[in-house]
Amino acid sequence: MMMTDELSPKQESLLKFGFLNNFFFLASKPQVSILKSEEQPISGSSLTLRCQVHGYPVPVITWFKDQMRLNEDDRVSIHSDGELSIKGLSSEDNGMYTCEASNNLGVVRKQVEIKIQELVTEASVTGN
């Protein structure tokens, strides 16, 4: 086996290719987009944000809210496919959500602002 310092420039460039099931994949910096399940989420409901990521090697996805890394709890679920789910929404969930995708070729971030609509009931309108 050749060591990397013994490779020609052409051979080194070939190392940027991945090989899987007879297909070659060109190494690439991550590309990110975010899809929301609801345009105007309502207090008490659920919200799903999908971080769609492309890149090779496969990027690692990390979610942030207001620049703080999100951790899972009884209301927040982060799935390996890049999906973020939040149950029982409240005004505390308002903020800027960021999906970060990283691999050895770079880091890319996309943001989406979430504003939770408070549910207005008849009692709150009439003051009773």
Measured as a percent range, the helix fraction is: under 10%
The name of the CATH architecture is Sandwich
Shape: elongated
Q: What fold name goes in the CATH topology slot?
A: Immunoglobulin-like
For the record, the CATH class is: Mainly Beta
| Widest β-sheet, arrangement of strands | 3-4-8-7
Percent of residues in β-strands:
over 45%
Note poorly predicted spans: 11-15
Average pLDDT for all residues = 83
What number of structural domains do the residues give? 1
Mind describing the biggest β-sheet?
A: 4 strands, antiparallel
The secondary-structure element order is HEEEEEEEEEEH
Tally of alpha and pi helices: 2
- Radius of gyration over all CA atoms, rounded: 21 Å
Q: What is the number of E strands?
A: 10
Distance between the termini: 80 Å
Spell out the CATH superfamily. Answer: Immunoglobulins
Specify the structural class: mainly beta
